[in-house]
Amino acid sequence: MSTVSRSRCAYLLPLAIVVSLCACTNRGSDEAVDLADEVTQGSAGATLEEGQRIFRYDTFGDETHWTNELRLHEVVNEKMQPVEALALGLKVDMDKLDLSKFIAHNPLAAGGTRELLRQDAVVGLKATFDEKGDIATLGVTCALCHSTVDNAMLPGIGHRLDGWPNRDLDPGAIIAMSPSLSSEQKAVYNSWGKGMYDPRYNQDNKNGPVVIPPAFGLKGVHPIIFTGDGQDISYWNRYVAVTQMGGHGTFTDPRIGDSGVNVTNGTDDLVSSKLPALQAYQISLPSPPPPKGSFNAEAAQRGEQLFRGAAGCAECHSGPLFTDAGTRLHDPSEVVSEPEADGVPSYASRSATKKYRTTPLKGVWQHPPYFHNGSAKTLEAVVSTYNERKSLGLSKSQVGDVAEYLKSL
Ligand code: HEC
Ligand code: HEC
Prior knowledge:
two-stranded antiparallel sheet, mainly alpha, 10 strands, two-stranded parallel ribbon, 2 domains, about 10% strand, binds heme C, about 400 residues
């Protein structure tokens, strides 16, 4: 567990949890709130509810991978304290949390983590237990990477925010704890860092992680993912469920790599039948509006003029979704985030299309860093990059204005 650097602050968390016990009366709050107005009665509502359940809690049988192959259940069972789990970016769903039981199981030791899992309160992780109370199986769900919490109780503990990328999560460091991996593999996984994941490394053995993107604001966006590999969300959901999570089912795409990707796990199919509801749920997730007072409205107005005019942004970020994805993809040579750092292979070259999709921009304020490789830390840095690489000739204050506009979307 040497990969986790624990801040002093993290050590204070269990204490803070105990203190907040008295103040907290949120257990069992109404889950339906998360579905906003989308879920009413009838079959559409039922589909969304089913999709939400799959997104949050379904492992597609991937315990075969995380338990039998990676043996991460042993690590979590024996060694992972709640503070370490939080330091790795794992989130706790306070609507599932039974604080008094949690505290009774020693929040300072692995027993506390086991209790959180027993309560189904760790976002994106699913465990089962043997009769001794040890973890028997561990699996992961879509929510691990594509949900976070609003920190309503404490940093890392709050109400679920489905579709919000978990940019605190260090998936590589979690996987690297597996006793089943070689030291070369561990070094690659440990190199990724928070909010980053390479969904192609285990297929092509190249190392070039990308940011975990939001799964909200995707209604009407086709094709999907950074490289536009699939027309619909289900294409990629099948890819991730089978090739990354280790869920039972099949994924094939002859366009990727030298000989295509062709993966089958198990003899059963626990993925296909779930894809329609899962897709419907993701499409129902709106991009979050910017927080009040988070941008300067006058500057944003000037920025919009530039975005649509002199800066040329709307040539590609066009229409209500701020993307031309429906009509074309772009060669890496047109894209300012390429070429990448020394030694990092072009992400597009590893995809099915070898190109990039213009990223939709609604809710972009929510998820720094930017570009597929996270190379721009802020929206100002994004606009500066365009200004330099495309020789736009914007002044410093104009760069700021365009950034303010982006914050308003
Ligand atoms: C280990 C982290 C991880 C898990 C688990 C995961 N994803 Fe992702 N997801 C990613 C990354 C990284 C990308 C970016 C890949 C790309 O665009 O090339 C991505 C891309 C996506 C996109 C594309 C968004 C867009 O802008 O087009 C959607 C939708 C999505 N994931 C949904 C899901 C669903 C549903 C599941 C569960 C079946 C899931 N993901 C599981 C990391 C993850
Ligand atoms: C030639 C088409 C094109 C033009 C012109 C263009 N973009 Fe982009 N934009 C893209 C593509 C493609 C991506 C995805 C690149 C990546 O992820 O590395 C992108 C990504 C972005 C992102 C990152 C979004 C995220 O979620 O990470 C922002 C912000 C952005 N562009 C803003 C702008 C602004 C502002 C301008 C004008 C100064 C502009 N773009 C001009 C095609 C374009």
